[in-house]
Specification:
- With 119 residues, this protein is of the alpha+beta class.
- The chain has one domain: Trna Endonuclease, Chain: A, domain 1 (3-Layer(aba) Sandwich).
- Helices cover 33% and strands 41% of the residues.
- It has 3 helices and 5 strands.
- Strands 1-2-3-4-5 form a 5-stranded mixed sheet, with helices on both faces.
- It is globular, with a radius of gyration of 14 Å.
- It starts with a helix and ends with a strand.
């Protein structure tokens, strides 16, 4: 499978998983000059930014590919999103960064609140 399509499929599986847990989609694939945020959702007055990693779990699981450099890029993109959408952010108390790992065998792991901040 082409990597982009594989990534899109992983994101869709992650989104379906989160919707079943009561999350509501705010934005998908937010892109700015700093990078991309795969999913932006809301739940209970929180704005949740989600990085989705998918693939095989041979030597390392997909979520283990989210390193310090990747988190730094995501944080820059989150700050950009918040500044560009400041008029809509007031309805949220805080935001958090989650990571979802979607393995080729269908296993989904959700790592909640990797980082969180009050708005």
């Amino acid at each position: 499978m082409v990597p982009k399509k594989k990534g899109d499929l992983g994101e869709q599986k992650a989104l379906d998983f989160l919707k079943k847990k009561g999350y509501k989609l705010v934005h998908r694939n937010y892109r700015c000059r700093f990078g991309e945020i795969d999913l932006i959702l809301s739940k209970s007055k929180k704005l949740i930014f989600v990085e989705v990693k998918s693939g095989k779990a041979d030597f390392i699981k997909p979520f283990q590919r989210v390193d310090k450099r990747k988190i730094k890029k995501i944080l820059f993109a989150i700050n950009h999103y918040i500044s560009v959408n400041s008029q809509n952010i007031h309805r949220f108390n805080s935001y958090q960064l989650d990571v979802i790992s979607v393995q080729d065998d269908g296993t989904i792991e959700h790592f909640e609140d990797i980082l969180s901040f009050e708005i």
